[in-house]
Design brief:
With 324 residues, the chain is an all-alpha fold. It has a single domain (11-204, 232-286), classed as Rhodopsin 7-helix transmembrane proteins (Rhopdopsin 7-helix transmembrane proteins), CATH 1.20.1070. 70% of the residues lie in helices and 2% in strands. Strands 1-2 form a two-stranded antiparallel ribbon. A hairpin with a 4-residue loop joins strand 1 (159-162) and strand 2 (167-170). The longest helix is centred in the N-terminal third of the chain and has 34 residues, at 11-44. The model is unreliable at 1-12, 298-303 and 308-324 (pLDDT under 50).
Length: 324
């Protein structure tokens, strides 16, 4: 199989790539530590696992932890050496991990939006079986993501080097029916449909918060608390910012002539998408009071403040809510 690995001859370009490489080493360390710490916090504290949204967040953390540990090192070390230093098998492995994490994160974010919409529309819904259904949903998401990543290994499309040959992904540029059919399918079912669901559910949540009757004071206070939980929207925005440039590039490469695009510009969106591994844990630490309360390295004053807030809000928060 022909590859488009570029052995860079200009030292100036190589120095630029090394800067990106050291930056990815930093992302590797930060992503592994943050995702690992939050995942450990979720596992150790059973109270956090009583909320369906926190379980979904745990699914995101697990995916990001896998990506940070096993996927980022490949492009990081290759950038430092200014060439792909692993075999084609390493290329396929890196692409599978990256693809699996991207698919599972998109689906879980979609499920979080649906979960939030369910809470907003049915605030008095009993929490029975919600936790069990959440675990089953995450398992189904992982299986579905694994399905999309295995298909190229079974002959429906393939994995190949991309850009400067410093990372790997699905084959986007080949014009055969086999590749085009797969590309269209994954773009629809992995990107466009989940994004539409996320947008529709969040827009309806926003509209519903302004259409309550005045005498529904209890529900109003309940929804007011939910509106203050902006980390769900922050997660979606962060993920889309990281992956949308790459999705646009993929559309251009898959259906148009991409020869006029410089190869370095063909590489940057793919590398930028990998930074999404550290966005989720940073957002959780900043915006999610549940995790801040239990993370060992948070200051005691933050813990005491969270305790006071929890006591004040306990009377109007349900067990399966996004806020506790």
């Amino acid at each position: 199989m022909q590859t488009n690995i570029s052995h860079l001859k200009q030292m100036e370009s190589c120095h630029i790539l090394r800067i990106f490489g050291y930056y990815f080493i930093l992302l590797w360390i930060i992503g592994t530590v943050l995702n690992g710490t939050l995942l450990y916090t979720l596992i150790r504290n059973s109270k956090l696992r009583q909320l369906s949204t926190n379980i979904l967040i745990g699914g995101l953390l697990l995916s990001d932890f896998i990506g940070a540990c096993f996927e980022i090192p490949f492009p990081a070390l290759s950038l430092i050496h200014c060439r792909w230093i692993f075999t084609y098998t390493g290329c396929v492995f890196e692409a599978i991990i990256s693809y699996f994490v991207g698919c599972s994160n998109m689906y879980i974010l979609c499920l979080i939006s649906i979960d939030r919409y369910s809470i907003m529309t049915r605030p008095f819904q009993p929490p029975s079986n919600i936790i069990q259904r959440t675990y089953i949903s995450i398992g189904c998401i992982y299986i579905l993501s694994l399905f999309w990543t295995i298909m190229p290994l079974l002959g429906w499309s393939s994995y190949d080097y991309e850009g400067l040959g410093l990372s790997c992904s699905i084959q986007w540029t080949e014009r055969s029916l086999n590749v085009i059919s797969y590309n269209i399918t994954v773009l629809i079912f992995i990107y466009f449909i989940p994004v539409m669901i996320i947008l529709i559910t969040n827009i309806r949540n926003h509209r519903r918060s302004f259409t309550l009757k005045v005498n529904q004071s209890f529900v109003q206070r309940r929804l007011l608390i939910e509106r203050r939980v902006l980390h769900t929207i922050s997660l979606v925005i962060g993920f889309l910012i990281a992956w949308t440039p790459y999705a646009i590039l993929v559309l251009i490469r898959a259906f148009f002539d991409a020869n006029h695009i410089p190869r370095i510009m063909d590489t940057i969106p793919a590398l930028f998408a990998k930074t999404s591994f550290i966005w989720n844990p940073l957002i959780f630490i900043v915006r999610n009071g549940n995790f801040r309360h239990y993370i060992p390295f948070i200051l005691n004053k933050h813990r005491s403040k969270s305790n006071k807030d929890a006591k004040r809000l306990q009377f109007c928060v349900y067990q399966h809510s996004m806020v506790k």
